[in-house]
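lol ok so funny story. i was supposed to be doing the assay writeup but got distracted and ended up predicting the structure for this chain instead. priorities right. anyway since i did it might as well share w the group, maybe its usefull for someone
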Amino acid sequence: MTMNSDYYRIKRLPPYVFEGVNRLKAAARAKGEDIIDFGMGNPDMPTPEHIVEKLIETVKKPRTNRYSASRGIPGLRKAQAKYYERRFGVRLDPDTQVVATLGSKEGFANIAQAITAPGDVILVPNPTYPIHQFGFIISGGVIRDLRAEPGPDFMVSLDNAMRHSVPKPIALILNYPSNPTARVADLDFYTEVVNYARKHDLILLSDLAYAEIYFDDNPPPSVLQVPGAVDVTVEFSSLSKTYAMPGWRMGFAVGNERLIAALARVKSYLDYGAFTPIQVASAAALNGPQECIDDIRNIYKERRDVMVDAIGRAGWDIPLPPATMFAWAPVPEPFTALGSVGFSQLLLEKAGVAVSPGLGFGEYGEGFVRLALVENEQRIRQAARNIKKFMSSADTHLHNILPVASGAGGEKKKS
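and the output, tada:
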């Protein structure tokens, strides 16, 4: 028997757009080059001490090394329900409306497995975080793109998609504050979407991973604050950014009982839940002092302000993001002809600065790149100096590239 690498589900996945930039980044580092990495949204701050101490205390208890609970230990689910009541004024039953997930990414992948039949149509904003598409593609679903901006145009495109998609779409993804665009939605927008979803029997899947990373006086709302939303909605959240716990892999799905039960059933076949000490420490994060969230938020705000100012003075205007740990910036003139992938590769090669090409977040992300606020202020200023030098040599860089550039995506032709 010959091993065939073209397996059905793998064949359904498109080429990984970030691969080229990641390969160049790895090669540069292997040669000892210093890369200032704004590519991956990988929080670099230490986890607050009281959370770490609870982990250490719990891991010393022998019973905690046994299999845990797939849907989350009761104390953790209660802590998440209390958080929703405290933060959003939303009451949840921790036994039937809350499931702990291995980060919000795993939650999305498993809800896709739970609700998707082959050929089901899922409405997804574009550009968006890749799992919002690929979780459903892997599950046999078909993606129909919507423009990602919350507002009247979103509702027009939603209605067009509902009326013209065959078969009728089963679910709509929401992600505000948005990764990658950093856009924020308000309750008026959510109310309109919920009313539409209830009328058309459409499941809402909301990714609220950046609920606590915002930079003005208006905390982003939850869609579950809208009356009746729980009839059609599951919302995903994560401790990764809120408490600087990315590697702990702790998130939640909350909302509609029937959908939560379906997700919990799929999970029961696939995992035994996170390591119990991580769940206990996560409950301590949610129940304990919350000043650490303000501290983390302020660090991101300071980095955001330095990035926008310093790189702006270097000659590349970066719009001020209102939330998240990302800036979403147009590819600067005169590099637009390279496309987001070509520009990202050139910026890495010539300036030692890594960013994520917008095309990796969907076709409507072309022409933009995403910069993550995961380097300290000194490193951000160093990146700005590198970028200033890079921008001043733009003519030289482009002269060497554009004569052999292809028309699509700005990637060099193979010789």
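The first helix runs from residue 8 to 11. Residues 54 and 125 are 38 Å apart (CA to CA).
back to the writeup now i swear
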